[in-house]
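During the no-cost extension, the postdoctoral fellow (Dr. R.K.) reprocessed legacy sequence entries with the updated structure-token encoder. One reprocessed record is reproduced below for audit purposes.
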Amino acid sequence: MSPKGRPEGQSAPKRVSAEGSPVSTRAALAARPARERGIVVFVALIAMVLLSLAAVALMRSVHTNTLVVGNLAFRQAAVSLSTAAVEKAVYDLFPPTKTIADPTNHDVARNYYAFRQVGEDANGVPAALQGANPPPAYPGGAQVVTDAATGNTVRYVIERMCIAASLGKPAAPNECEMIPPKQPYAKEAQQKKGIPLPKIPYYRMTVRVDGPGNSVSFSQAMLR
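Re-encoded structure tokens follow.
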């Protein structure tokens, strides 16, 4: 007898495949792990694809958040610069600091036009402020302000709300958009009505602020 309990000279039984051909025990055991390894590779590939998609989505989310934060910062800076430009226009237009000597004629050096310019777009932006940075129609002698802290560039146009026929003439109701000036509400005891004052024209100011990344902001104010 052999140590494995078989008679001497008798070989071990062989496994037979479904087709009837003999299959060794070692080959049968080796075939199963090969199939399992193929499934593991397939699952790993799917996991890598999912992780790659998640990484791309995360990068896009971070990029979008960065753009939003940058736009908010530019908007705040643009509002501050636009306010400063309006104050400069008030300084140039009205006493006691008035620097535009003759409001009935153009003063391009101070960004002023005595009548409403042609070529404005549907939003009321003058042609001088339209287009790429710098605007091609912006006058060469007009003021350009660059903020050293942010690098933003400010350009603006002041227009007297009159037609072209008013050039060189004082504002008149038939040629300009006008409104009575502000008057105090308080009156003297014997005064029955306020003193009538002549109407004054409107002045429209349009401000363009150019920032980094081709960011552009427009704002308008009506001055009187």
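The beta strands are 15-16, 22-23, 112-113, 145-146, 153-160, 178-179, 200-201, 203-210, 216-223. Residues 51-182+197-223 form one domain. The remaining legacy entries will be reprocessed before the final report is submitted.
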